Amino acid sequence: MIDTLLAAIHWNVRPEIFSIGSFEVRYYTLCFLLAFISSYVLMLHIFKREHKPQELLDQLSIYIFLGTLLGARLGHCLFYEFDYYKDHPLEMLLPYTYVNGEFKLTGFHGLASHGGAIGILVGIFLFCRKTKTDFLWITDRLVIVIPLAGAFVRTGNFFNSEIIGLPSNLPWAVVFEQVDQIPRHPAQLYEALSYVLIFILLWNIYHRKTALKPGFIFGIFLILLFGARFGLEFIKENQEAFEEGMKFNMGQLLSIPFVALGIFLLFRPYPKNNRRSS
After folding, report:
1. pTM
2. Any known ligand binding at 49?
3. Which of 76, 171, 206, 273 has a CB 3.0–4.6 Å from the CB of 110, allowing a cystine?
4. What does R_g of the chain's alpha carbons equal in angstroms?
């Protein structure tokens, strides 16, 4: 065990880049911003390629930003810590915690990717209803860049020393010294790498295929991304105590409906004369 500990990569980077009083800027925040910036730049390329106005993308970006943030926050509160937040509902949407009779600025510590996915879909639905844009046209393009954004977010989790993996004796095991002294799978980096590979695949499909039915890329995205998430959960520590003893943890249970939807989109019958060009 001692030899394994010495051979492991030791990670003890503080999650804060800098702080002023109770206000702090974290690497996670920077990664979150990079996720949105990279998504916008790539989506702008797609919109220009298909002769769509940038103003439409600007509107979509607002819906996606709000949907992601609200969905991810509410998802964490409802899926993982409902017992606490049902008695503290204001803390779901406010970056404060009520401690010893006073409010303390804590930021949003707790975002769930499945909640973010639901929030994004709701945001797209509202955007499409307002702008009369086809829902599957948007999703087929937006999901191309979402995996890359997810890779940035998981890198932020690595800086936070959170969503850690199970103990491991592999040569690339990481000791998250902010958590304990046990060499573990760098599960955040596994997930980030898988998301980058999914992004590369979807990007190539979009640029090389000329005839795809609506929802095809969306379906591949759902199967690959949430399938990867389901599999990687087997080498992660459970995030909440109530998941102990469950055959599948909350992350896996929430992934199953997304994979099922992807399979439906991929294999649903669609008339050939209605297929569109990418």
Report:
1. 0.85
2. no
3. 76
4. 20
